[in-house]
Amino acid sequence: MKKILAILLPATADNVIRGAKAPVYVFALISVISAVRSLIHLLTPDGGAGSIAGMDLSVAGANGIVFAFALWGSAQLIYALIQLVVAFRYGSLVPFLYLLLILETLLRVLVGHMKPVTFQHTPPGAIGNYVTLPLAALMLVWSLWTYRADAPRARLRSRRCARTGPASLRNRCGLWRPEVLFPIAALWGQSSERPVSAIDVSKLRRHLQAEMCR
């Protein structure tokens, strides 16, 4: 449980992906769709209440319905902007945002059952709830299942060794100089009680290179 909380609420919010990348890409797509949806509610003349949701706007108080949809769109836009910032700048928070998305979807489904409204047809949002909910749950589980706390460090070491190569590491760290390698090789070969040879130094060099790039 502590590990799950550490993943959902990391001590440092950064843009390091510590698991599978697919959930982050899917979340970025969901964020773009949320932004478009919020702009439709905010900018269209009827707020999408009649033209999209299929609500009857010929009744008294229809302006209040349009106002509520536009107001909802403005709140959705703020939420979508937060999602976009997390998707492209703070990837470590994506699992937590998936959890919030699941809770938000469940609450909207619950409100729909508690306070039902008559529509001329099934609103796209109602259909989207039954797509978003399992998708977000799957992506959240995938993020938690593939999480590796040491993955960024391992990838960083791999990129560093691939980029710099042994020669650059040798010049920078000075580990391959004979005056450094021979005493280490001597300690390394003490158990065999034989003099240190160039072969011992070569083996030790390869061993240290593998350890640094592991």
Provide a quick synopsis of the model:
It is built from 8 helices and no strands. It has 214 residues and is mainly alpha-helical. The protein folds into 2 domains: 2-145, no CATH class; 151-212, no CATH class.
Amount of helix? 55-70%
- Major sheet, described briefly? none
What's the structural domain tally?
2
> Would you tell me the structural class of the helices and strands?
mainly alpha
Q: What this model shows, in words?
A:
The chain has 214 residues and is mainly α. It folds into two domains: 144 residues, no CATH class; 62 residues, no CATH class. Helix 2 packs antiparallel against helix 3, helix 2 runs antiparallel to helix 5 and helix 7 crosses helix 8. The radius of gyration is 28 Å and the shape is elongated. It starts with a helix and ends with a helix. It is 70% helix and 0% strand. About 5% of the residues have low confidence.
Main features:
214 residues, mainly alpha, 2 domains, 0% strand
Spell out the blueprint of helices and strands.
Layout: H1 2-8, H2 22-43, H3 62-89, H4 94-114, H5 124-145, H6 151-173, H7 178-188, H8 198-212
